[in-house]
Design goal:
The structure holds 2 protein chains of 2 kinds. Chain A is of the alpha/beta class. Chain A contains 23 helices and 20 strands. In chain A, strand 14 (329-334) and strand 15 form a beta hairpin. In chain A, helix 4 (110-120) packs across helix 5 (126-139). Chain B has helices at residues 20-30, 33-55, 86-122, 124-139, 142-153, 157-184, 187-195, 199-236, 247-253, 266-290. In chain B, 36% of the residues are buried. Classes of the chains: A alpha/beta, B mainly alpha.
């Protein structure tokens, strides 16, 4: 039995779009030994998932393997029949997807889905499979390992589900597991636990792994070797430590530089009075209160970052301010004057000054409207601009967001990339000439490089137009980059708030400490040190419940 | 270029932008045989319906020959039970049946579509009440209900149109409401609402452009069902009344010819069948395209 497990040579994969075949992977080589962990890094669209899936000779619908060889443990996969491949998949090569929630059948218990694989492949019988499941659940540190398998997917949290999926992938003791961005959808604090689990279990079973991610810091914790991909081609490949200390190519270096965007000193408020003040707001849906006694204020020219895990109430706060969720107690003031609780009772001017930019640019723009109309509507609706004036203003706005007017003005949203769509969302918000903009996780769905561009743009616009931003995010790196003031939320309450430097320097509230320490660093040993530190000090565990 | 990142889609801008019409024509040429058949059928029937008076040799209700004459030179498809030319009756039948069915479907869409949109946007009580009314109406078997209403209100063409449109509007309500609900929860709809847009804008400019695909497919299907319902009602005597030519009643009037081995009474039935088939093929193709199955998303 040789050590070389997977050998891919000159792989070429095409994808179809509008009856035209485009190259997705342009002649890649990949080597993987038994027990080795390989990290695949790149922006979205680089071909990471496509390459990872190709390791088991699988392509997504609309794609085809045009050429190249995929040799798995001496067997040439491209020549095998579908039947042979089916025997391999799940048994010797397993796949852990990004979204655990989408990968589990909501109608079956976890243990049923676990047992299905070894039973169908005739590796184990039902009882043995269930016993094995419980053992694996224990090893991936799931609470109540003997009982948790009998729950349904919606009854466990996201982090737990992700670990259950890892356990499920191990059910037949595969030689290779492909992890496709397994922690991208999780909170920072949950991510720690899942990362540690994956790394330990892979070592324990001496499984080879391909770890796909766009987050370099995360991959640095997990992989022995890293391959950087871009536009379907290899940019650089070396061992983790070597790549961390001496990246060779400019592109690799730029992936580091992303985290270096920092605001120049905190800007002082330009006016004494806050433009928006949230005063003692308690709000919720039905009987339960999601926000409890929340008070904070935002000044023009400043950015207030609202940080917290999912379920902390950040987005609910935004809904209260915009008037989508009238608060049970408390009020929201704009420039000193109390805003009507529901947006339906607010007049046009009040609505105009509170603009919102959404997280998912795909659903934030109407796919059947051209860019010209998306940006133009607020102009005609709020500012009564028509005809030539409106056209000029639209072009002006497009230039402001750094999109060439002639090229983009007549396009539909699906002809733009994620970053460009987000820029159009910004232009739409700006068109209303507001004083205050709520940015609801606007960079969370974007790659780091693209996100950096958006943050720079927002920063520039803030200085130019003296805007106030309320920046909702769960990513501390973003907060460090753009915030003046920080509000830390936990389960609907504010645990800490103040100027950025104050909040980020000790002494901290316990939860702030937890958040800050959970942000992955670019040091391969970071995870080890963190786990050791936490075990020693019995630090509070992640609190997210979904 | 500018500071923003370029997309791999940018090379497209060098291609001349196609108008929607050119895009549509290209799509039609790529369609499968069945869809082309469907389009052909609809075009032929449409043409016949519009130009019936010009195409037919005789008048619609003119008695021109002996009863149940055989197929010959003078009467290409023979004559019916009263001596009227079959071919003429068939062509006029196209105009009457198809025309009434079309108007009825449009009216049904107006009623059902509008209430469906409003129920999706407003939710709450409006949604509950209209949905429950629709549930009750749909619980009663449609044909029997229609027969009863027509017996009560008479069988003039306007009454026929209104009765069938109201009954069919229930189905359209459900479809419209379902697809509109998918749009109403999206961010861009919330953004429009927050802007302060009025209900007209929300319906027509935000939701409607995004639900045209399923609605058009539904239109085709509804048209078939309405069409068949009118033919069935006419066959039973409560639909389009004689002497107006109509395929359903033509089947009934000439049914006795079957006993003589003559297939003439089957002709209007075949005409009904071909139209239903053609529209169904077209709708199938349309649904397949708009479901995005081919993209594998």
């Amino acid at each position: 039995m040789t050590d070389r497990l997977l050998e891919i040579r000159n792989l070429e994969i095409d994808g179809e779009s509008d009856e035209v075949w485009h190259e997705i992977i342009k002649g890649l080589d990949l080597d993987l030994d038994r027990g080795e962990v390989l990290g695949l890094i790149g922006e979205s669209g680089a071909g990471k998932s496509t390459l990872g899936l190709a390791a088991m000779n699988f392509v997504r619908p609309g794609c085809r393997i045009r050429g190249g060889t995929i040799c798995f443990d001496g067997q040439e996969l491209t020549e095998q029949s579908e039947t042979t491949l089916r025997k391999l998949r799940g048994v010797r090569i397993a796949y852990v997807a990004q979204s655990a929630a989408a990968s589990f059948n909501p109608a079956h218990q976890l243990i049923d889905q676990f047992s299905e694989i070894p039973v169908v492949h005739k590796v184990k019988n039902r009882q043995d499979a269930e016993a094995d499941a419980k053992d694996l659940y224990r090893r991936v540190l799931l609470p109540d390992p003997n009982g948790i398998g009998y729950r349904y997917p919606h009854q466990v949290s996201g982090g737990q589900l992700q670990r259950a999926m890892t356990a499920m992938a191990l059910s037949c003791r595969p030689d290779l597991i492909i992890f496709d961005e397994p922690t991208t959808a999780l909170d920072v604090t949950t991510q720690i636990e899942v990362l540690a689990t994956i790394r330990d279990i892979v070592r324990e079973f001496n499984t080879a792994a391909i770890y796909i991610s766009h987050d370099l810091a995360v991959v640095a914790q997990m992989a022995d070797r890293i391959m950087v991909l871009r536009y379907g081609e290899l940019v650089e490949e070396s061992t983790t430590r070597q790549m961390m200390s001496e990246p060779k190519m400019d592109y690799t270096k730029s992936l580091w530089a992303v985290r270096s965007f920092k605001k120049e000193a905190e800007t002082a408020a330009t006016e004494i009075n806050p433009v928006v003040k949230v005063d003692n707001v308690t709000a919720g849906y039905g009987k339960e209160d999601i926000l409890k006694n929340v008070t904070f204020e935002i000044h023009r020219g400043q950015t207030v970052a609202i940080v917290g895990e999912s379920g902390s109430g950040k987005s609910t706060a935004a809904r209260v301010i915009t008037g989508l969720l009238p608060p049970r107690l408390g009020e929201v003031q704009f420039n000193g004057e109390t805003l009507p609780k529901s947006f339906k009772s607010r007049n046009k001017d009040q609505l105009r000054h509170v603009q919102m930019i959404y997280q998912m640019a795909d659903t934030a723009l109407n796919p059947r409207q051209r860019i010209r109309n998306i940006i133009g509507r607020p102009l005609s609706f709020y500012l009564n601009l028509r005809g030539k004036q409106k056209e000029e203003r639209i072009r002006e706005l497009l230039s402001l967001i750094e999109l060439e007017p002639d090229l983009y003005i007549d396009r539909y949203p699906d002809e733009l990339s994620g970053g460009q769509k987000q820029r159009v969302s910004i232009a739409r918000a700006l068109a209303a000439e507001p004083e205050f903009i709520i940015c609801d996780e606007v960079t969370s769905a974007l790659d780091q490089l693209v996100a950096e561009g958006i943050l720079r743009l927002l920063d520039r616009l803030q200085r130019e137009f003296n805007l106030a931003y309320m920046f909702i995010t769960h990513d501390l790196a973003t907060v460090k980059a753009i915030a003046d003031n920080v509000v830390v939320m936990l389960q609907g309450e504010i645990v800490e708030q103040g100027p950025k430097t104050d909040v980020f320097s000790p002494p901290h509230h316990e939860y702030t400490e937890l958040l800050l320490s959970s942000v992955p660093e670019m040091d391969p040993d970071w995870l080890n040190e963190l786990i050791a530190h936490r075990e020693k000090h019995g630090v509070m565990r992640s609190t997210s419940t979904s | 270029m500018t500071g923003a990142e370029t997309t791999s889609r940018d090379p497209k801008i060098n291609r001349p932008r196609r108008t929607r019409l050119q895009g549509a024509l290209r799509e039609v040429l790529k369609a499968p045989m069945t869809a082309k058949f469907g389009i052909l059928v609809i075009l032929v029937y449409g043409f016949v319906a519009i130009f019936a008076p010009v195409l037919t040799p005789y008048g619609e209700t003119e008695i021109v020959g002996p009863e149940f004459d055989v197929w010959g030179e003078q009467f290409i498809l023979g004559t019916d039970g009263l001596g009227r030319d079959m071919l003429t009756r068939l062509l006029f039948g196209a105009r009457n049946t198809v025309g009434v069915a079309f108007i009825t479907t449009c009216l049904a869409f107006l009623i059902g579509g509008l209430t469906g949109l409003l129920a999706a946007i407003y939710g709450g009580w409006l949604d509950q009440i209209s949905s429950r009314i629709v549930d009750v109406l749909m619980a009663i078997p449609q044909l029997i209900f229609a027969l009863m209403l027509l017996a009560i209100f008479g069988t003039s063409i306007p009454t026929l149109v209104i009765v069938i449109a109201t009954l069919d509007a229930t189905r359209i309500f459900r479809v419209t409401r379902a697809v509109s609900l998918n749009v109403v929860v999206l961010d861009y709809f919330e953004a429009a609402r927050l802007r302060g847009e009025r209900i007209f804008w929300l319906c027509v400019r935000e939701i409607l452009p995004n639900i045209t695909a399923p609605l058009m497919a539904e239109f085709g299907l509804r048209f078939c069902f309405v069409f068949l319902m009118i033919a069935a009602l006419s066959f039973l005597g409560l639909g389009i009344q004689p002497p107006t030519a109509d395929w359903g009643s033509m089947v009934r009037e000439n049914a006795v010819l079957i006993t003589f081995g003559d297939i003439t009474p089957v002709l209007p039935a075949i005409a009904i069948a071909i139209l239903t088939l053609g529209v169904n093929f077209l709708v199938d193709w349309f649904l397949h395209k708009s479901s995005g199955l081919k993209d594998g998303h």
